Task: inverse folding
């Protein structure tokens, strides 16, 4: 892909730190050299937060009606939120949650139409959004449903570490019953395909964590490892996926074993995200693997306590935008390579080169 990547950016909750980290990120001169940003939200809210930040006077914006009308050298803004809504930094309100949902829906519409190459989502308040959209549990689940895919993978990525989870935003008490050979194998397939297509790794190695303390201690502390997790790893091996484990969760990250593998698959949300955020909070990115489109997000929440104070760290948002650009380019290169291989008859799935996900 020779042209600049067109990146849609949703505002998230207008009363959180979304606009602040978006504005701070887009002041980086490198951004407009690498991508065309299209912000979905409110030019009024953008201007409100911009006035509170120093050294952003020269950030040129362009109000457009559709992503197709973008200016290649400016920050483009699509007004999809009513101008009269109240901006109240630091306070979760029904208005701010509804605005986040509206922006997300508009961006997804353009993403489906092919007007965007990638989507970066600023944080929103899941509970507040669910009041407007019953059943909403997060961006990952919403996008999986919107794009009609069978499964998706919440994939946390940083420079030297990648961690995915089998169960996403699910009550801990429901995790054991949600695990099965099929559910784990599905995530391993998604992870393996994403590592090749999105990150350019030819033969990925994946570490799989157990569910119970000490991976069940041979059944003494639980049978999920012997009955479910290990059989899923064996089944993955038969599909030429290099999966290893099940590793004891408590000692895996403390002994830095994650760096010996291309990715780690955890069984549930906190098992994977607590060590990931402890080690890579400032640069961590939440990527949804398994979608036909590219979507990333900074790995933090709305941070209401920082909203309007100019103290939010933009590095996770910057990392999310850079990751979206890199993944979009990697996919384009991978798909072109696959097309050439199929055209010349050199496709060989036994070597680990499989069709596009």
Result:
């Amino acid at each position: 892909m020779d042209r600049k990547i067109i990146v849609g950016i949703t505002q998230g909750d207008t009363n959180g730190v979304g606009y602040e980290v978006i504005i701070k990120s887009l002041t980086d001169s490198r951004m407009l050299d690498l991508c065309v940003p299209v912000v979905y939200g409110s030019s009024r809210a953008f201007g409100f937060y911009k006035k509170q930040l120093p050294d952003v006077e020269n950030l040129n914006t362009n109000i457009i009606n559709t992503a197709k009308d973008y200016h290649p050298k400016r920050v483009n803004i699509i007004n999809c939120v009513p101008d009269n809504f109240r901006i109240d930094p630091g306070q979760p309100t029904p208005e701010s949650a509804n605005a986040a949902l509206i922006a997300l829906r508009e961006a997804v519409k353009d993403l489906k139409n092919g007007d965007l190459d990638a989507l970066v989502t600023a944080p929103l308040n899941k509970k507040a959004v669910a009041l407007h959209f019953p059943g909403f549990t997060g961006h990952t689940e919403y996008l999986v449903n919107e794009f009609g895919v069978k499964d998706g993978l919440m994939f946390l990525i940083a420079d030297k570490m990648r961690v995915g989870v089998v169960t996403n935003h699910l009550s801990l008490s429901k995790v054991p019953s949600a695990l099965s050979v099929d559910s784990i194998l599905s995530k391993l397939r998604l992870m393996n395909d994403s590592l090749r297509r999105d990150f350019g790794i030819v033969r990925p190695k994946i570490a799989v964590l157990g569910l119970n303390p000490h991976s069940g201690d041979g059944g003494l502390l639980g049978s999920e490892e012997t009955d479910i997790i290990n059989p899923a790893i064996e089944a993955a091996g038969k599909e030429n996926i290099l999966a290893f484990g099940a590793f004891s969760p408590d000692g895996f990250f403390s002994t830095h074993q994650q760096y010996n593998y291309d990715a780690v698959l955890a069984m549930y949300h906190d098992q994977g995200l607590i060590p990931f955020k402890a080690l890579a909070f400032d640069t961590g990115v939440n990527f949804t693997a398994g979608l036909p489109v590219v979507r990333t997000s900074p790995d933090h929440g709305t941070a209401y306590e920082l909203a309007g104070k100019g103290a939010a760290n933009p590095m996770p948002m910057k990392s999310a935008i850079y990751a979206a650009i890199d993944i979009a380019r990697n996919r384009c290169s991978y798909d072109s390579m696959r097309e050439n291989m199929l055209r010349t008859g050199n496709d060989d799935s036994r070597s680990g080169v499989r069709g596009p996900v």
